[in-house]
């Protein structure tokens, strides 16, 4: 389980990006983190993997206090956190296989990784993962020859080969078309279920969050203003998170439509 207790982050510039954020994410839960630009979504993820140090508060992952680890302890702890990014962060001139294997860098010794000599078991696992994410025949392609959706699949395989307990996902679909976005979100959520992984997925698309996450947390100016099921994101809640707007159009209407069907007037027979 991941736990954040009263986590605050003030950057050197004075920006208070997180204000006493308290959250618990049980094993296997996929949580979507929504909120306007600047709300603190990326900061929250970076505090968990300690790319930035929280100013106050305690973060634990499976009982281990992440927020006060030494550099050595942190290297080990980061193996348990798989990262997936909007811009994929692949090494363009390397092959798909080499990019996936680079997820093992936290385990493989420096010289082995320098000569890119990975254990056979890692290579087998990489093939298995490539198959699972639908890129079985692309192992030898260079990363710069792939489409955005394919790149993100490589990013997912690279995160999973770490054998993480937690996935930290920062806007995985922001550069993808609507159908590919759904496929990528579906893949991430299926893999979390298969492997019993917890995940935090930062996402701007409210509908995608509602479709795929069982829990949605809304951040606004560094504070949690909503924490609940996806169908609780009504116009009032969205106004609280994002500000005044006509939110009706963005919310899934499936349930309303059913109700409307019942109330629909009888068709008038033509004379
Ligand atoms: N390295 C930094 N130094 C100073 N201030 C920062 C830094 N990174 C972020 N901030 C500030 O912290 C606040 C939260 O930023 P953050 O990037 O976490 O928001 P976000 O919710 O991820 O936004 P977006 O949706 O645009 O990615 C903002 O006010 C931002 O300006
Ligand atoms: Mg961000």
Automatic annotation (TrEMBL):
GO MF: ATP binding
One Pfam family matching this protein: ABC_tran
Domain ABC transporter: 2-246
Key words, A-Z: ATP-binding, Cell membrane, Membrane, Nucleotide-binding, Translocase, Transport
Claim: Transport is one of the keywords in the record: yes
Keyword Ribosomal protein: no
NCBIfam families assigned to the protein according to its UniProt record, in alphabetical order: ABC_phnC (TIGR02315)
Identification of the protein by name: Phosphonate ABC transporter ATP-binding protein
Organism: Sneathiella marina
Lineage: Bacteria, Pseudomonadati, Pseudomonadota, Alphaproteobacteria, Sneathiellales
Gene: phnC
């Amino acid at each position: 389980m991941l736990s954040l207790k009263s986590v605050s982050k003030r950057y050197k510039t004075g920006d208070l990006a997180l204000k006493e954020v308290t959250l618990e994410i049980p094993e296997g839960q996929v949580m979507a983190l929504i909120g306007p630009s600047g709300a603190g979504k990326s900061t929250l993820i970076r505090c968990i993997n300690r790319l930035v140090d929280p100013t106050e508060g305690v973060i634990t992952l499976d009982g281990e206090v992440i927020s006060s680890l030494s550099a050595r302890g942190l290297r080990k702890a980061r193996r348990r956190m798989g990262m997936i990014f909007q811009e994929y962060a692949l090494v363009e001139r390397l092959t798909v296989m080499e990019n996936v294997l680079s997820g093992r860098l936290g385990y493989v010794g420096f010289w082995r990784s320098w000569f890119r000599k990975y254990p056979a078991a890692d290579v087998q696992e990489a093939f298995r993962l490539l198959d699972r994410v639908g890129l079985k025949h692309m192992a030898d392609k260079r990363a710069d020859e792939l489409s955005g959706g394919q790149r993100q699949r490589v990013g997912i395989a690279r995160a999973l080969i770490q054998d993480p307990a937690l996935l930290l996902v920062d806007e995985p679909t922001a550069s993808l078309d609507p159908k590919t976005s759904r496929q990528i979100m579906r893949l991430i959520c299926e893999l979390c279920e298969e492997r019993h992984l917890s995940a935090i997925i930062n996402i701007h698309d409210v509908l995608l969050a509602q479709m795929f996450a069982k829990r949605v947390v809304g951040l606004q100016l560094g504070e949690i203003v909503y924490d609940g099921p996806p169908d609780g994101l009504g116009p009032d809640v969205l106004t609280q998170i994002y500000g005044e707007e006509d939110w009706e159009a963005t919310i899934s209407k499936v349930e309303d439509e059913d109700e409307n069907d019942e109330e629909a007037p009888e068709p008038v027979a033509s004379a």
